Amino acid sequence: MALTLDDVRRVAHLARIAVEEAEVERALTDLSGIFELIGEMEAVDVAGIEPMSHAQDVVLRLREDDVAERDQHALFQSVAPQVEADLYLVPKVIE
Amino acid sequence: MHDATISMLSRQLAEKRLSSVEITQHFLSRIKALSTRYNCFITVDEEKSLAQARAADTLRAQGRAQPLTGIPVAQKDIFCAKGWLTTCGSRILGNFVAPYDAHVVERLNGAGAVILGKTNMDEFAMGSSNETSHYGPVRNPWDVQTVPGGSSGGSAAAVAARLAPGATGTDTGGSIRQPAALTGVCGLKPTYGVVSRYGMIAFASSLDQGGPMAKCAEDLALLLNIMAGFDARDSTSLEREAEDYTRELARPIAGLRVGLPREFFAEGVSPDVARAVDGAAAELRKLGCETVEVELPRMRLSVPVYYVLAPAEASSNLARYDGVRYGYRAPEFTDLMDMYKKTRAQGFGAEVKRRILIGTYVLSHGYYDAYYIRAQKLRRLIAADFAEAFKRCDVIIGPTSPTTAFRLGEKSGDPVQMYLSDIYTIAVNLAGLPGMSVPCGFDTKGLPVGLQIIGNYFREAQILNVAHQYQLATDWHLRAPAGAE
User: From the list B344, B377, B431, which residue is nearest A16 (CB)?
Assistant: First the structure.
């Protein structure tokens, strides 16, 4: 199945990445080559095979319901682009 | 001093013939003199390193030293180190000073090792040549016109050029082993789950694993002894008894069955690489090993499978870089959506964006089963091939990379060609097995060739044993590039 320029624009929007029109063309060429490689997966019958999501079949651990983290918001917010009154600032979303 | 292995330096520290300050100062001055030539460090902070070195000397004077106390180790810039700039090779983390230590950093600090600086790498560990770094490509010390491999190219080049006695790396599809091969050093990717990823910036979470890089197998074992271990903060960290990875080093390897997968010597491997790896197999036979032919029939599929799974997981992991809580934010934007889009467009480089787009596509509505689920099913078949092969042998060997170091720019315009340079390493990550690369010769241009040694799950000590015995019989790992004397 061939990718289209619209696919690239749609996926870039989903991924929240701005792309110039000139970049869309280039991306389509690169991605088409990669999807041709990925297409090799179709040569194998996978009926009845369980998907493998991790190398080890580990069960997620539960921990004691204790306080494990101390409040370090001042330290963590010290690397933020914009903070006011302990809150992260972003452009206004509701008028 | 810089040709010495970690175990030699450790002995000299123990015998009080050297101090950590002297060793650290020596490597810092080498970095000052040579690192611009190779561009293998993103951040060096002499004061911080020397403060750690002084503290290590104090520990030793108090009789509280461990084997790595006072040994300088370079950290790949993917590991958060408190107070250190931690960029992951990206513009989007160009101003990110880590507020906490990764588990690996915490462990090495706890053992008294000295952080020698943060090494250059492919952006977010996505690359096989170190050319995708926002901080410029790393150059291979064996020939500065060639790449060092990637993504742990800075760590590999630093060890090769004798700018660091050891370094950390991470390996999602070959990022420790392939650069180790291309620069003539040793690197080990442990079994998935052995080294905690807490504070190790995530790329593809079902594959990422940290590991050591150094000049010889014995040093890798010493580093892994500290880096490995259970950590409740990483949900994939395995609860296992602590191991001494040096315990099998001295064991003779006579009688060991060494598997040679037919597929590792098929078309695509360069004649020079095949010749060097054949030579290594002959050397292992001389040491009493029995070589047996094995098959990994689905190995060819590992590259397409990887290029579905890794980008899918990356697109999800990298969604966190949005210019809100840390890192780069675009200077101009109209609204929140525009801020996200411009921040990510300006903050990420071309390869990272390419992989986010692939990942977003394969996870998007209507394509999930055809790509992601199918790839996960094939992953199980690839892992099953290894399980079958390990019924007939104890370890598997082959080339780490189909070629030696290629020229800067040679493959950067063609993503698929670049991806294929990891054809022999990716399957090991998909299966979650331990694998390592050790030097085993040179091509006709004098560039190093890497031998890959793959073990069964949790058999790190065994592959280290094979590598160490091989290194007692050969001297490929002792060769240093011209200019690094």
Answer: B344
Domain boundaries, chain B: 6-253+463-478
pLDDT > 70? residue A1: no
pLDDT for residue B77: 98
State the average pLDDT over residues B172-189. Answer: 98
The ipTM is 0.95
Pairing of strands A87-88, B41-43: unpaired
* Predicted confidence (pLDDT) per residue in A25-67, tens digit: 999 999 999 999 999 999 999 999 999 988 877 777 888 899 9
Q: Architecture of B6-253+463-478 per CATH?
A: Alpha-Beta Complex (3.90)
Return the domain boundaries, chain A: 5-42
* Cα–Cα distance measured from residue B49 to residue B39, given in angstroms and rounded to the nearest whole number: 19
Cβ atoms within 10 Å of B387's Cβ, excluding its own: 12
Evaluated on CA atoms B181, B182, B188, B189, the torsion sign reads negative
B49 is catalytic: no
Find residues 329-388 of chain B whose CB sits inside 8 Å of chain A.
Answer: 329, 333-342, 344-345, 348, 353-354, 356-358, 360-362, 364, 371, 373-381, 383
Note whether B83 and B73 are within 8 A (CB).
no
